[in-house]
Amino acid sequence: MRTFVIGDIHGGLLALEQVLERANVTTEDTLIFLGDYVDGWSQSVEVIDYLIDLKSKQNCICIRGNHDQLALDWLENRHDDFDEEMWYKHGGKATVEGYAKISEEKKKAHIEFLENLQDFYLDDHNRLFVHAGFTNLNGVKWEYFSKLFYWDRTLWETALSLDPKLKEDDLHYPKRFTVYKEVYIGHTPVTRIGETVPVNRACVWNVDTGAAFRGPLTILNIDTKEYWQSEPLNELYFNEKGRN
């Protein structure tokens, strides 16, 4: 029995199938998905179909990403604080086109899936899994604005800027990095710092390796830190633009 964490998929079903096969995932393994299943490549609907089916076969923990919430808001016709034009530009167009082809019954099943996504998951070893981050110095259970779980970038920015020589007992060491043994996030692609593999800073592991753009999708064994990757998504979907 192994536990894997999977980065942002963004409609790339071909990549998801590829990493699960490359990691030799079995139904005995636990899969933790960090969110952003939709928006980008053309198979957002198929990715959710796949996850719904996978959850019926093995232990899957599905975290809510900001793009998943945007898609849910659109599906449920909620337009408060929703910039539809901006969403279209950042991958929403492909999602809308995908949902134009399915039945109302299947759409309802997808809405139920999206509504039941978790804001975060904390395991028995004090390891936190969250799409974007958190801002409260005492941890996720004290977060006042729940949207920050899938929109925050300050956790990762702080981790990147932290002096690696600074010790945990130093007065200037960020308290956020002392709450959990490890924190696994997606949301901000590591391609922004020129990487295409998981990046660890302080206690934070960023597993978003840019699958929405020209990077691969990554699956990582949280105990051994061994990881497997798909081919770059722009090669798997060579006739599509994605979010590029």
From TrEMBL:
Read off the Gene3D superfamilies from this record: 3.60.21.10
For this chain, one GO molecular function annotation is: hydrolase activity
| EC id | 3.1.-.-
Tell me where on the tree of life, at the top rank, the source sits.
Answer: Bacteria
**Which species does the entry assign this protein to?**
Flavobacterium chungangensis
The membrane-spanning stretches of this chain are: none
Arranged from A to Z, the UniProt key words for this protein are:
Hydrolase
Q: What class of enzyme is it?
A: hydrolase
The record ties this protein, via PANTHER family, to: METALLOPHOSPHOESTERASE (PTHR42850), ZINC-DEPENDENT ENDOPOLYPHOSPHATASE (PTHR42850:SF4)
Domain named Calcineurin-like phosphoesterase: residues: 1-191
- Could you identify this protein by its name? Metallophosphoesterase family protein
Q: Which Pfam families match?
A: Metallophos
Which InterPro entries would you find in this protein's record? Ap4A_hydrolase, Calcineurin-like_PHP, Metallo-depent_PP-like, Ser/Thr-sp_prot-phosphatase
Question: Could you confirm whether the keyword Hydrolase appears in this record?
Answer: yes
